[in-house]
Amino acid sequence: MNLSSRLDLNDVSSFPTRRVEEWKYTDVRRYLREAPRGGEPFAVGHATGPFGDLGVHEQVFANGHWLLQQASDPVASDGNQLHIYGRKGLRVRPDVPFVERLRFVGSGGGGWQSSAGITVGPNDHCVLLESYEGTGSYVGNVALNIAVLEGGRLDRIVLAESGSEALVFSRADVKLSRGATLNQTILTTGSKLQRLETRVIHPGENVEVRLDGVYALSGAAHADLTSIVDHIGPSGQTSQLIKGVVHDTARGVFQGKIIVQRGADGTDARMGHHALIASERGEVDAKPELIIYADDVQCAHGNTVGTLDESALFYMQQRGIPADEARALLTQAFLIEVVDRIEDEAAREVVREWLEARL
Amino acid sequence: MLSISNLHVSVADKPILKGLTLEVPAGEVHAVMGPNGAGKSTLGYSLSGRPGYEVTAGSASWNGQDLLDLDPAERAAAGVFLSFQYPTEIPGVPAMTFIRTALNAQKRARGEEEVSAPAFLKLVRAAATALKMDFDMLKRPLNVGFSGGEKKRMEILQMALLEPSLLILDETDSGLDIDALRIVSEGVNALRSSERSMLVITHYQRLLDYIKPDRVHVLAGGRIVASGGPELAHELEAEGYDKFLPAAA
Questions:
Q1: How far is A121 from A180, CA to CA, in rounded Å?
Q2: Model-level pTM?
Q3: What residues of A are in contact with residue B51 (Cβ under 8 Å)?
Q4: A332: which chain B residues are within 8 Å (Cβ-Cβ)?
Q5: Of A161-165, A266-270, B33-37, where does mean pLDDT reach its minimum?
Q6: CB-CB under 8 Å, B109 with A320
Q7: CA–CA separation, B155 vs A97, rounded Å?
Q8: ipTM over 0.90
């Protein structure tokens, strides 16, 4: 984990320019030239986020401030920092996962940053329902430090709808121990500028990682799904499926990097990114990277950017489905493959409805 | 009544239909036969409003309603159904979902009450049984991985459920073996009624042994060059299209 390269809203020198390769498509300095003023905390209703009351616990950050009244057992807090611990001392994986909602809500025009840690204990199974919500021209910066200990499993499901005027940056650094599983699905409608980044240290050794995502963008929205998976040990698995659709002048960015270090033999990594451009001025920038230093690995990537099939559209209209409805149905069918990969049934249904309502 | 008058249609600025005139009274089945490249498929696409098929002159109406003024979905709601020569695959949309969405969209457009999910399930089960279709096929994405025969059966199933008043069958026999042809034809024949008109577009006479037309028209060079009774189809089968080609030139 390289903390020094993290974006810090209080330090203008940490704002990347487009000359920084990793930030080429997401131009922070275009919108942010000075450190934004601090945002004030505000009240947020319990269970009012996109996941509703799914799960047991809810942690809320309002303009970066952790709302103390939401405190519950497995939490330690230190000002704007929060650490969520799953269950401890488990010898076998329990049947029922530990489900936690984690909400980052922004409002107004201030700037804020917050950080949260999540530790999934040995053999535990956590479902993290994370959401980015809000309205206004705020600037939000979230840092997550996630550890999944031996034999643990984390299903991280993210719904991001942070408002069309906001600048939102989130970066999750994930450390996995032997036998751990990370299943991640991010869905976003973008923001004025939004980047949701995931960095995974992958030890190999029966560790499975799935890093999926969907961007459904319209207006002038910008969403950037960036991920780096660093395979440092042998026999690890990574699977990634990102799908997106851009309307109007929206812009979708996918940067997926999988590194297979020397000695990480037997790695099996598959990456797919497929996007639809539904307008003349929509844009998709994709940068899939596989960097392989090991022998005997299976790595594959597929990347397509296209438009909706005109003959399918006509066929549907010929049967009486109006053009807009036909487009939405085809788009939904295209994107839903990602949602279908979510194992947790209750979360999957919430996500499905969330997505369908936004097409 | 389907009424087409002096229809001119261009595709990519190339004239394909050049003054086609044709009338199909309600309840009648008319066959349109013609050599490859005569404009048979263009006729079906023009009547159903496919983008890229530009009507440059003429008119087409169904039961007095100007079809050319409507978008494809509106034409469908007005009763027009084109059975495709090569039905399109719709990945990710289960056949049942697709048909129910289409049926309810048409009903909405006509100001009728939509069909509930349980009621639709009943309808679709009955229709699938009549066509000897495996019900599980309806849970799969529409036409994806279906054989030619299965795709055509799916077209007939949609016809039976959407109950269009004007059926345009574009080379429905292509890609069908003799058993599939019989099943598909029986499905079409079951839909014959005094209010429903059919335009059967075909290259071969074979299909017309199963779906007996009231009239047969020969389309060559972008217009109807001859019309007659069912015997005209047999004549064409025996003698070919050659004698009509100079007339069209």
A1: 10
A2: 0.87
A3: 310, 314
A4: 92
A5: B33-37
A6: yes
A7: 46
A8: yes
Residue A63's region, left for phi above 0, alpha for psi from -120 to 50, else beta, is left
DSSP-derived secondary structure letter, B249: -
Express each pLDDT in A271-293 by its tens digit: 999 999 999 999 999 999 999 99
Task: Name the residue among B20, B1, B25 with its Cα closest to residue B9.
Answer: B20
User: Domain B2-93+163-248 is classified in which CATH homologous superfamily?
Assistant: P-loop containing nucleotide triphosphate hydrolases (3.40.50.300)
Rounded mean pLDDT of A199-219? 96
Q: Which two tokens stand for residue A289?
A: 């990277």
Give the model's pLDDT for residue A76.
Answer: 60
Partner A, chain B 76-95, Cβ-Cβ below 8 Å = 76-77, 80-82, 84, 87-93
The 3-state secondary structure of B186-246, one letter per residue: HHHHCCCCCCCEEEEEECCCHHHHHCCCCEEEEEECCEEEEEECCHHHHHHHHHCCHHHHH
CB contact under 8 A, A317 and B109: no
Interchain CB contact of B64 with A (< 8 Å): no
Which residue ranges make up each domain of chain B?
Answer: 2-93+163-248
Whether the CB of B102 is below 8 Å from some CB of chain A: the reply is: yes
Domain boundaries, chain A: 3-356
